[in-house]
Amino acid sequence: MFYIHCPYCQEHREEEEFHPRGEAHLMRPTDPDNATDEEWGDYLFFRQNPRGIHHELWVHSVGCRKFFNITRNTVTYEILETYRMGEQPSITAETEKLRKEQGVQTADGGWQTIGAQPDSRALNEETSS
Amino acid sequence: MSNVSAKQFNTVPAGNPAVESPLHWSYQQQKSTPSANAGVVLREKALLGHVVLRGGAIVMDEAVRQVLGMSLPAKPNTVTRDEAGERSIQWISPDEWLVIVPGGEECDLERRLREALGDAHVSIVNVSGGQTVLTLAGENAREVLMKTVAFDVHPQAFPVGKGVTTVFAKATVVLRRASETEWELVVRRSFADYCYRWLLDASKEYGIDTQ
Ligand SMILES: [Zn+2]
Predict the structure, then answer these.
(1) Which CATH superfamily is domain A3-124 in?
(2) Which residue has the higher pLDDT, A18 or B11?
(3) Residues B202 and B147: beta-carbon distance below 8 Å
(4) Residue A127 to residue B157, Cβ atoms within 8 A
(5) Contact yes or no for B70/B87 (Cβ under 8 A)
(6) pTM for this one?
(7) pLDDT digits over B194-206, tens only?
């Protein structure tokens, strides 16, 4: 089970309350009347399937019912960040590659996975305020 | 829409029709025997007025201050109440709030809010017939919730005044902590019997006192 931070509820909630809705940041063709079949096909059907960093659309279906984005590592299942609709990710495949090249330890964002940080330090700080 | 001459649907019923709680049938079916030293006390706050408000927070806050004399909850997942504790406004999402008032006030509330909001882009829906409020108290109430809802109900994660929408035994519930000892569960009409029977079953080991 994941413990996912909803950017609208501004707190962590059980994965059970959420639904994944596929790839994030899909752009509808800007000129729909003149878009080619290939452009429509790409928009409607073709999706990325990366090994590593992936940006996904999720919905907090049993909570606030808002859509938001998650940056997730498809290999480790690590959730690196969540952000609102209309915002851009701060962590991408490029930034992660750069961090590795510079010898920086992997992000501590992995504590969102249950068990990774049993004390849930950040959660306790959040609720005691 | 104050300047539109659309016919307004009058939601106030004429005469004095009989009303029943969504749990009416459940009460007939489940003849519970009151147990001494019950660890869980389950009650229903039946037939209250439930109104869902949607729109911008600033314009809505002004309107509810004017009409109810209360402000919208400033933080997500919180509930504001009037001094008597009879009227409450709960944050449901950044543009949605649940107002619960004593039964019979909801139609008047809706009308006064519409007047106060004028042409603002909002939605006000009276959902009183669609849900009901159960209350859970007693020393084992929290244990029952721990095996029922996905949310952490530890006092540290769930202080008084908090309210969340979460998973309740595969259904959904709006869960609120009304006081140190009492929890409020807003359940959907169609789930009411299921939730009620779940609570009876989950409370069995502690002994349950129903009305
Ligand atoms: Zn949420």
Answers:
(1) Folate-binding superfamily (3.30.2270.10)
(2) A18
(3) yes
(4) yes
(5) yes
(6) 0.86
(7) 999 999 999 999 9
Q: Residue ranges of the domains in chain B?
A: 35-209
Question: Residues B12-58: pLDDT tens digits?
Answer: 677 888 889 999 999 988 776 677 789 999 999 999 999 999 999 99
Return residues 4-23 of A near B (CB < 8 Å). 8-11, 13-14, 16-17
The residues with which A20 forms a beta bridge, in sequence order, are A58
CA-nearest residue to B76 within chain A is: A9
Ligand 1 centre distance from Cα of residue B199 (Å): 26
Cβ–Cβ gap B76/A11 under 8 Å: yes
Neighbours of B123 (CB within 10 A): 10
Bridge-based pairing of strands B208-209 and B40-45 is parallel
Q: Do A64 and B96 touch (CB under 8 A)?
A: yes
Q: What's chain A's length in residues?
A: 129
- Per the CB < 8 A criterion, the answer to whether B104 and B13 are in contact is no
- Give the residue extent of every domain in chain A: 3-124
Q: Find the CB nearest A8 among B93, B150, B166.
A: B93
What does CATH list as the number for B35-209? 3.30.1360.120
Whole-angstrom distance, CA of residue B24 vs CA of residue B47: 11
ipTM of the complex: 0.89
Amino acid symbol at A52: G
- Residue A8 Cα to ligand 1 middle (Å): 5
Estimate the crossing angle of helix B57-68 against helix B106-117, to 10 degrees.
130
Of A8, A11, A16, nearest to B167 by CB-CB distance is: A16
